Amino acid sequence: MKNLLLFSILILSNMVLKAQTKKSDLDVNDKIDQLVSKLTLEEKAALCSGRDDWSTQPVERLNIPWIWVADGPHGLRRAPATNKAGYGDQLPATCFPTASALSATWNLDMVNKVGQAIGEECQAQNVNVILGPGVNIKRSVLGGRNFEFFSEDPILSGELGAAYINGVQSQGVGTSLKHYTANNVETMRMYNNSNMDNRTLHEIYLTPFEIAVKKAQPWTIMACYNRVQGVYGTQSPYLLTDMLKKEWGFKGIVISDWFAVVNRVEAMKAGMHIEMPRVSGVNDSLVVEAVKNGDLDIAVVDGLVKEILTIVFKAKALEKEGAELNAEKHHAYARQVESEAITLLKNKNQILPVTKEKYKRVAIIGEFASAPRYQGNGSSEVKPTRLDKALDIITKEYGKDIKISYAQGYKLSDDNDTSLIDEAKKAAADADIALVFAGLPLQYESEGIDRTHINMPVSHNKLISEIAKVQKNTVAVLTNGSAVTMPWINEVDGILETWLGGQAGAGAVADVLFGKINPSGKLAETFPVKLEDTPSFLNFPGEQGEVLYGERIFVGYRYYDEKKIEPLFPFGFGLSYTTFEYSDLKLSAKNTTDKEGVTAILTVKNTGDVKGKEVVQLYVTDNKSTLLRPKKELKKFAKIELEPGEEKEVTFKLEARDFSCYDGKREMWIAESGEFTISAAASSRDIRLSEVVALQSTQQVPLAFDEYTFFSEYWKNKETRVLLMELVPNWIKGFTGEGKSGYNADFPGFMVDHPMIKYPYITNGEISHAQVMELVEKCKSFTYNP
Ligand code: BGC
């Protein structure tokens, strides 16, 4: 009874947690402290592991409840019970467009609302935490889970992730930001080492997580299967404690990906809270033993348990009794979202939209029109509440005015069977336009398996080419979760990329094809001409458990820019049925500091005759930098809607971080002084306007000289030059000409381009090894203004 009372107090205190003052936080913490003091070591160890597949461990004796976690991210995949796998028998839920599509909307508000809807569905099905979103970078086009991730760009990924999390969590349901981090390859995913330098880790693979944590505080983070810089993601103190907690201020708990834990004790020391799912009691016993023999500090266990209980009680307190799943409303919203994701890649001679004035007879070709592919394979698979088919919707909504015919075109059951092409050609020839639905069948993109090529099935490619031979108005309508090659690109006038668009995707495709909706999706990933052009081509999927991130920070468009490779379609690209004009880019200052930053304002006008939405992108270029930097990097974006003739101002505020790069040696972000070009663009290859700002850095950063820094570096720096003059004046004098002092010495490169540690013998003993080390020590406190 007493415990029940304590639990009720906890629930009540938590209900008002958000709005409360610090005092009530203290109350809740006190209660949790009391509970922790009553738990046995065995109970604490058990709390740090799941109860079964989908729930956390309760402690009935103390009325500590359990909470339900279930897969996502683009909808809820809830098993019938917490101890059932839930593949096939999961409860129906709305299958929203997958991340491949959500990212193409570039619409944060919309993704936030998708999160809200999913949060509502979690409440209706008693799920406390949904396992998503995935903000891993699409490093290679071959990545088997690319459909589940947002983008090749860290800022876009992080912002979308934060929008989704804020949406879900506004409903009193937690998220699990995954898979932390550098989880970019499925092959050997349980062991592979994502081997990269510090700068790459921070600029590309940590940034999306950092943004999502700072802007949205997910309740949980899922630690990855793979190793990062040699250490398992579940066991990395650097990732789980130094970065996540100390640098970014993460307040939630870390759970492992399913069966990701290798050494539970080391994982707990590193800052991992819960091992998922429950494996057996073996790992719990190891924890108990480690505490008893002094290997694991009980204070560490207590800290983790307290944080677990904080999330568990928060989740329980925010449960909504009697919440219902609004299937109709969410289906309609899923259609709307997908209609903003669909990306128009080619529209020669305005072949689209289809109108009854232009086309009396429409041939719909391809099995995807009647058997849609709308999501990917693996743990994210949602059982939809219903499923729309393009053929049905188009026939129903447009069949009265337009004659619709259909031909299967290929067999989804056999990629190489081209026997249906002739029949499809006949249907196409008898129509005024052919809409060919093609793409990647389910088995091509899956969790657990990477692709080995980026081609569509032979039967699909051949079908498109053959149809184009008999019908000059041919549009390829593509369904795929990541980039594909298009050998027939010059044979068709229209290409519509529809991604994996969720259960209501077919309706959205109809809306865009027939002009009810003006397409506004833009690519969140580069489409290459061929696999060999891609950044990680030589280093994917790695070998013998090592994945060398040899392209470093040059992922996606950063690589294509640097190598001057023409992609099939560039990052950020997407057409509209209208046109937009960019003008008047103005910066708030010509000179600024990293502290003040700069504001960029520009005007965008709809110059066509239909309403439309435009994704305005802002890229920053460091015109001259010490470290090699990409030609440009996306820093901001905005999606705006404009009526025909209407114009709007778009404002972006750039701050220190937007000018900075991560110095791997100094382990810090540095904004260097110098000129930066700020570009407003319609895609990464369509820069419309640019302005330059001169930035004066106010940072003082460590000089970071050591015994391996070259003599020439010590000589270039004013302060250390003085020290060299004191230490080796005679040797320096050997390089001064007539009338010159030692300070103006003129060294041949080969004499000074050596690490300082060699100078005891280069100077013929004028400086000793001990003096070199003293010099290094002295320099440790030196800083400079970059
Ligand atoms: C996947 C996660 C998923 C988990 C639970 C793992 O294999 O990597 O994304 O949330 O299983 O199904």
From TrEMBL:
It comes from the Bacteria. The keyword Hydrolase applies. GO terms for biological process: carbohydrate metabolic process. SMART domains: Fn3_like. InterPro entries: Cellulose_deg_GH3, Fn3-like, GH, Glyco_hydro_3_AS, Glyco_hydro_3_C, Glyco_hydro_3_C_sf, Glyco_hydro_3_N, Glyco_hydro_3_N_sf. The keyword Mitochondrion does not apply. Keywords: Carbohydrate metabolism, Glycosidase, Hydrolase. Residues 614-684 form the Fibronectin type III-like domain. SUPFAM superfamilies: (Trans)glycosidases (SSF51445), Beta-D-glucan exohydrolase, C-terminal domain (SSF52279). Belongs to the glycosyl hydrolase 3 family. PANTHER family: BETA-GLUCOSIDASE. This is Glycosyl hydrolase. It comes from Labilibaculum euxinus.
